[in-house]
Amino acid sequence: MAESVRLVDLVQSRLDGFLDDRSSIVGTIGPDVTALLDDSRRFLSGGKRFRAQFCHWGWRAVAGIREAPVTQRELDAVIGAASALELFHAAALVHDDVIDSSDTRRGEPSAHRRFAARHAENRWAGDGAAFGTSAAILLGDLLLGWSDELLDDALFELGDAQRARAARQLFNTMRTDVTAGQYLDVLEESAWVGRDEAEQLEAARRVVVFKSAKYSIEAPLLIGAALGGGSDAQLETLSAFGLPLGIAFQLRDDLLGVFGDAAVTGKPSGDDLREGKRTLLVALTRSRVSGSVRRVFDELLGDPNLDTEQVLMLQGAMRDSGAVDEVEEVIDREVRRANAALDEASLAPEAIAALRQLTARVTDRDA
């Protein structure tokens, strides 16, 4: 995967250059605003870069077998679009941490906690937590706007209006999907009490698809393919691969949110239990346990002060109910669906090989 490693370096370089350019604008506003730029750099350094990689290989999948040769200008545009996806992802993480009241991100304080700490260190007036939340929302908004700017720069570099329009429409759809999916996630943490078990399962599945699966894998693939001038058939193949893989990716994330090692994931073990995430894992558990267990489960889930013993109790209920095994079976099934979509696909062989390797990486992981 030497090409993927090089891609990650190119994306980091593009992001660094973009932030350097914006620093001149931020600098004219005043030194107090530089904290936004500093935290932007922190959020955009490192990470797995899965979205950038899927964008790149979506492009390579179609560009690698077309007649027209690849130009440096086109490659630069793809790197720019991949970088814009990483900016968008950073914005989503900042906002997600605010919504979930998460203390950490990648083993460090989340953005709103970092801003709250600055408030305390400087002994500013008012509520430090409220300041942290407000500042983090603005940071997320800034990153979201910058992702649009970087994408526009990339589409201009491409020099092909038809491909640029197709990629822009896919990006816009992705943005709507993930925002609506995030709302569904927030909604379900409250609205579940009025739904029966079947409705809770269906709601959890919709959250998986729209909050994560589409924007994490399917949309980046399609945006990359659009930049390469992919046909409708090629985009359909990549969608048939990307959506089930995205579902498997998020379900693995849900398991890690409950059972993951804090030293590896960078978030406390059982964090999703304290946040009260109404995942498919939770919905399956509730549908399988006895009424008495369900009452205790519902009472504990979402309590931010859960202690270790209570977390272990909830984890045990999930395992004993068979819900964990069922989620693992769903992951395996979706991975098989994804891989089957690439069989005999009219895509570049080297891209198919890379996508199969990425499939294993995003679904068989501990962080």
TrEMBL record:
Pfam families xrefs: polyprenyl_synt (PF00348)
Concerning PANTHER family, the annotation shows: GERANYLGERANYL PYROPHOSPHATE SYNTHASE, SHORT CHAIN ISOPRENYL DIPHOSPHATE SYNTHASE
The reply to whether Transferase figures as a keyword in the UniProt entry is: yes
* Protein's name in the database: Polyprenyl synthetase family protein
Q: Coiled-coil regions in this chain?
A: none
Name the protein family.
Belongs to the FPP/GGPP synthase family.
Q: Which cofactor does it need?
A: Mg(2+)
Give the originating organism.
Gryllotalpicola kribbensis
> Which lineage is the organism of this entry classified under, starting from the top rank?
Bacteria, Bacillati, Actinomycetota, Actinomycetes, Micrococcales
PROSITE patterns xrefs: POLYPRENYL_SYNTHASE_1, POLYPRENYL_SYNTHASE_2
Entry keywords, A to Z: Magnesium, Metal-binding, Transferase
